[in-house]
Amino acid sequence: MVEMNLWRAPYRGAQPISATVEIPGSKSATNRALILAALASTPSTLRKPLHSRDSSLMVAGLRALGTEISEAPNGDLTINPKRFIGSAKVDVGNAGTVMRFLPPVAALATGAISFDGDPRSHERPLGPIIAALENLGVQIEHGGRYSLPLQINGNGELIGGEIDIDASTSSQFISALLLVAPSTKKGITVRHVGKHLPSQPHIDMTIQMLKQFGAQVVVSKSSEGFPQWQVSPCELKGVDLIIEPDLSNAAPFMAAAMICGGEVTIKNWPKETAQPGDQLRGIFTKMGAQISFEGNNLKVSGTGEINGIDIDLHDVGELTPSIAAVAALAKTPSSLRNIAHLRLHETDRLAALATEINALGGDVDEEESALHISPAPLHAGIFHTYEDHRLATAGAMLGLVVQGIDVENIETTKKTLPDFAGQWSRLVSN
């Protein structure tokens, strides 16, 4: 029998919280900036980047391709671009950004670049980006599986051209092609031909960051009515960039004020941002929080009374585990809709949330693309996390007011939050 690594979630009950929290840098922004900096013609400095498993895997992958990346004592990163070379091996772990963004970059290298990762990475959708690269003339060995593990045999350049892609399972397929597009001979025009496009804000973030490095992006509709993005070839210029805090990772800390009552202040919340996590302000307000800016900080106040919500989370699916945890503690039912694509993340998040909340006495009805959550008294028990960082933080949130919840493998939060357990314990003990 395998012994589980259990972490007793700190319990606070109805004692109001008063705390100020600083959230580490955005994983999405850090990993996009690392790619663009490696593709630029001049060095870049990334200030306040995230240092987590996912970002470390991206740094290691780019270094394997030849990029020089150095870390200052304060954590800032300097990226000195170099010509990409093989042979190299890249470990993607279970990081979607690494497994989807680096193969197009590897196509610019000379030589063989092999990719592999955690067992779960072999199950995650990768076929559309592999097929797109093959259509652009890239030679890829994948044994006909169109999944990891794979090897890219690069010849030092990527011609570019027009690509139709179905990004219904992940918007990262589009971002992956857009990020490498300026470095191609002809540029790239990407058309999304699928029925659904999840996580549109992440594509908006990609476009915003491309422009920061000097690229031109034209967003339009094709003659058939498909959304289309066109990036012309250009020389990217290095930047000096401050990475925004990861607003999605702010969710559990914001929710703490709602669950226990009291107030939590999030430092340096950007007034304008493309991050999906910014939508938490509106979502949590509807669920009963009072949220306002105080200078550069965001103040979240709550009473411990939570309202249910009926909401389409298609564009901001990554927020679902946190919202589901809050909804499980609400006084009225909730419906979280249009989130079928979450079944293909680090784990099947819909099945996992339903299973784990119900195991604690909750009332969650799972549909193919939705969760319906009704009020029910919760009790102590084990909250399994399936090696998914957002499941782990959801379990910790429930543990605030349900005594005796043991979260399995809290260390999985290091994927995007290097010291979540420490930060959370300090928050609760304040």
Written description of the protein model:
It is a single chain. The chain has 430 residues and is an alpha/beta fold. It is built from twelve helices and 23 strands. The protein has two domains: 6-24 and 245-429, UDP-n-acetylglucosamine1-carboxyvinyl-transferase, Chain (Alpha-beta prism), CATH 3.65.10; 27-242, UDP-n-acetylglucosamine1-carboxyvinyl-transferase, Chain (Alpha-beta prism), CATH 3.65.10.10. Strand 12 (217-221) and strand 13 form a beta hairpin. It is globular and about 60 Å long.
CATH level-two architecture of the largest domain: Alpha-beta prism
Give the CATH topology of the largest domain.
UDP-n-acetylglucosamine1-carboxyvinyl-transferase, Chain
Rounded Rg:
21 Å
Number of helices: 12
Main sheet characteristics = 4 strands, mixed
Supply the CATH superfamily name of the largest domain: Enolpyruvate transferase domain
Shape: globular
Query: What class would the helix/strand composition place it in?
Result: alpha/beta
Rounded mean pLDDT is: 96
Uncertain spans, ≥5 residues at pLDDT below 50?
none
Distance, first to last CA: 38 Å
Number of domains: 2
State the helicity in percent bands. Answer: 25-40%
- Name of the CATH first level of the largest domain: Alpha Beta
Layout of strands and helices, then pairs:
Blueprint: E1 6-8, E2 17-21, H1 27-39, E3 44-47, H2 53-64, E4 68-71, E5 77-80, E6 88-91, H3 96-106, E7 110-116, H4 127-135, E8 139-141, E9 150-155, E10 161-165, H5 172-180, E11 188-192, H6 200-212, E12 217-221, E13 227-231, E14 240-242, H7 251-260, E15 262-266, H8 280-286, E16 290-294, E17 297-302, E18 310-312, H9 320-327, E19 334-337, H10 349-359, E20 363-366, E21 370-374, E22 381-383, H11 389-399, E23 405-408, H12 420-429
Parallel strand pairs: 2-15, 3-14, 6-7, 10-11, 18-19, 22-23
Antiparallel strand pairs: 1-23, 3-5, 4-5, 7-9, 8-9, 11-13, 12-13, 15-17, 16-17, 19-21, 20-21
Helix pairs in contact: 1-2, 1-3, 1-6, 3-5, 5-6, 7-11, 9-11
